[in-house]
Amino acid sequence: GAVVSQHPSWVICKSGTSVKIECRSLDFQATTMFWYRQFPKQSLMLMATSNEGSKATYEQGVEKDKFLINHASLTLSTLTVTSAHPEDSSFYICSARNHEAFFGQGTRLTVV
Amino acid sequence: GENVEQHPSTLSVQEGDSAVIKCTYSDSASNYFPWYKQELGKRPQLIIDIRSNVGEKKDQRIAVTLNKTAKHFSLHITETQPEDSAVYFCAAGLINQGGKLIFGQGTELSVKP
């Protein structure tokens, strides 16, 4: 079946630094990918829609300057958390749709 | 925008019993309703989905029903097994939006042997 790969699976960074997370569709092309954030014991909250070759569409309340999204190819979207702070610590998951929505394995970000 | 409400937040059943999880959605335009199972620290896995032109769908021990008029849909798991224990999420979206989904709050299902 279609596979979405996310890297890294976990990362620890210092407050104030930036972290880049990659999301790849391995065996299909995805003009659209989605980024979600999940806090412990909570639901997946849609952050933004990543559009290949154009600007991402952000959900209400999500800071576009803090969560930079780039979708430069049909198989890769990146999410960069800029100037990370402890409150940004969360589980970030991407998805892309072939005949169904496939999720990456998620990235657990811890900001210390 | 779409809003999805899911109940209950926790559900404990005995092995062999049935489990039912219910969701309601707000946007009548939504036409795609998947259910995901998520184990701790893992990615969500699709277990069943239903489109708005269908009222019920079944796959072995799992079934989903959809009431478009009332804007609610339900997941039914029969003959539950301990390995069914996980967090289950419902979601709603539009098929032509390429997978953009709004999720319910999740239900932590515990199946006791």
The count of strands of chain B amounts to 11
Round the Cα radius of gyration of chain B to an integer and report it.
Answer: 13 Å
Classification by helices and strands of chain B: mainly beta
Q: Main beta sheet of chain A: strand number and arrangement?
A: 7 strands, mixed
What separation lies between the terminal Cα atoms of chain A?
A: 37 Å
Low-confidence stretches of chain A: none
Which two protein chains have the largest interface (Cβ within 8 Å of the partner's Cβ), and how many residues from each?
A-B, 23 and 20 residues
Helix count, DSSP H or I runs of 4 or more residues of chain B = 0
**Shape category of chain B:** globular
Order of helices and strands of chain A: EEEEEEEEEEE
SSE run of chain B: EEEEEEEEEEE
Q: How many DSSP helices of chain A? A: 0
Overall geometric form of chain A: globular
Q: Strand-residue fraction of chain A?
A: over 45%
Assembly level = heterodimer
Q: Overall mean pLDDT score of chain A? A: 93
Task: Supply the key terms.
heterodimer, A: 112 residues, mainly beta, 7-stranded mixed β-sheet, 54% strand, globular, B: 113 residues, 6-stranded mixed β-sheet, 5-stranded antiparallel β-sheet, 11 strands
